[in-house]
What we know:
By secondary structure, the protein is an alpha/beta fold. 52% of the residues lie in helices and 9% in strands. The protein has a 4-stranded mixed beta sheet with strand order 1-4-8-7, covered by helices on one side. Strands 2-3 form a two-stranded antiparallel ribbon. Strand 5 (110-113) and strand 6 form a beta hairpin. The longest helix has 30 residues, at 186-215. It is globular. Mean pLDDT is 83; it is low at 20-34 and 52-61.
Amino acid sequence: xxxxxxxxxxxxxxxxxxxxxxxxxxxxxxxxxxxxxxxxxxxxxxxxxxxxxxxxxxxxxxxxxxxxxxxxxxxxxxxxxxxxxxxxxxxxxxxxxxxxxxxxxxxxxxxxxxxxxxxxxxxxxxxxxxxxxxxxxxxxxxxxxxxxxxxxxxxxxxxxxxxxxxxxxxxxxxxxxxxxxxxxxxxxxxxxxxxxxxxxxxxxxxxxxxxxxxxxxxxxxxxxxxxxxxxxxxxxxxxxxxxxxxxxxxxxxxxxxxxxxxxxxxxxxxxxxxxxxxxxxxxxx
Length: 285
């Protein structure tokens, strides 16, 4: 993905130096590896961190030392965020509306949000209460090591997916879906969650479509990187990788095939009218 010379978003809150250290006797990396699959598998994504002693989480931490490798990923993330700002501003204008960009919070270890305590073990996430994306950049390194999902466009897809949740929030879709989930049992709520996540994948694809149209930034292999990433973060793939079988009733993000399908639809069309994952029959997801 060609981003050399592109602007970096200033809509960023960098809290990385305030975190670091170790948790419960084994590093953040250990917890992240143990919980990486939980990010997109069934159940509460905070369940892993809730099993860690809160007194340990609140310990005084040493200042995080930022490596050149991490700083390069931070710069890339800011450039991708800037791209989403440019793209979604134009898309919203075409719909007769105004885009309000989210803030990107870079942190290390754990972070306080208006949605509660966040952690590196949860992976990247979006909080609609404060309209912020939260990312511990070590996630991208673990994504490569644990899942084999590597490449700059794969990383960009992850960021664009979280921005996709912000788009859902601005359009009123996210809050409506969350309200619906609160009235349902766990299995039915999971099915709504899948529709939320697949639409965010579609919006990530829409961003990729217009990013390339506006800046001609995609290179050979970029689309394959994003599609491979969508495949290996499918609920079925991750559950089978972790325990040898999958439980469809616990899926919260969709299967590999579903995630790839909706990402591809957004990437190939750029048409917001094709992204209504809530009205199509379950068999067509």
